[in-house]
Design goal:
5-stranded mixed barrel; 29% strand; alpha+beta; 3-stranded antiparallel beta sheet; single chain; 237 residues; Replication protein A 70 kDa DNA-binding subunit B/D first OB fold domain-containing protein; globular; NA-bd_OB-fold; RFA1B/D_OB_1st
């Protein structure tokens, strides 16, 4: 049995190719063409025991073989690894404005889902004549509100979980690896996922804040940035 220790993700450099790492596969996703056709190549996000994350791109020529291996590895790692299931690097709502024009797709946000209106799926047709699913809602941290739009499979999964799963109210959502729009709204990219009332200390802390009566007043007075819409977008809404 080899006594060689595992290398931390933070130590990886291009000068070598014989690294030995121990990581958890926390997400896999594929990109898609403008017509909605998925690429054969895919992406993987890995995390080590220090909760360092790294993105891996798997080219099409070895996608099938590696995807099968990853599927087997994930079944084993659930029983054997001590690496956490997930790790978050939260942005405060007020900081989202600073990254709205940047090509950043690993933004993690936590907030309370505002249920002042029914959250439903809406069928849309894009400029290419393709059908899309969409759901819109808002989250708050007590001082500001942020609009969120989920699309297609993620939108469908979100609405189903919100309606079918018995959840403590109000629902606290963690959105990880999301995209920040120009008007400081959030939407999903390929790597985006969400957690409702997740067992995490950040959710527990926000739940404690909810016990304070003043926090509910803050939620009611929380500010929402005005959103600029084109005429076509207004008609769709």
């Amino acid at each position: 049995m080899s006594s060689r220790k595992y290398d931390d993700l933070l130590t990886l450099k291009q000068a070598r190719s014989d690294w030995k790492i121990k990581v958890r596969v926390i997400r896999t996703w594929r990109g898609a063409t403008k017509t909605g056709e998925s690429y054969k190549s895919f992406n993987v996000m890995l995390m080590d025991h220090q909760e360092t994350k790294i993105h891996v791109f798997v080219p099409a020529k070895c996608a099938d073989a590696l995807e099968n291996k990853l599927r087997d590895i994930r079944e084993v790692e659930e029983r054997t690894t001590t690496i956490p299931n997930e790790s978050f690097d939260f942005y405060d709502h007020t900081d989202l404005d600073t990254i709205k024009n940047l090509n950043v797709y690993l933004t993690d946000v936590i907030g309370i889902i505002q249920r002042n209106e029914d959250i439903t799926l809406k069928d849309l047709v894009n400029s290419l004549g393709q059908k899309n699913l969409r759901t819109k809602f808002s989250i708050t941290n007590g001082s500001s509100n942020v609009k969120v739009t989920f699309w297609d499979a993620l939108a469908k999964s979100f609405v189903q979980q919100l309606k079918l799963q018995p959840l403590e109210d109000p629902v606290i959502i963690i959105i990880t690896s999301c995209k920040v729009g120009n008007e400081v709204d959030l939407s999903n990219a390929g790597a985006t996922t969400f957690y409702l009332n997740y067992q995490h200390h950040s959710v527990a802390e926000m739940r404690k804040m909810l016990a304070n009566p003043n926090f509910h007043k803050q939620i009611q007075n929380a500010k929402m940035k005005p959103q600029l819409l084109k005429i076509g977008e207004i008609k769709k809404n």
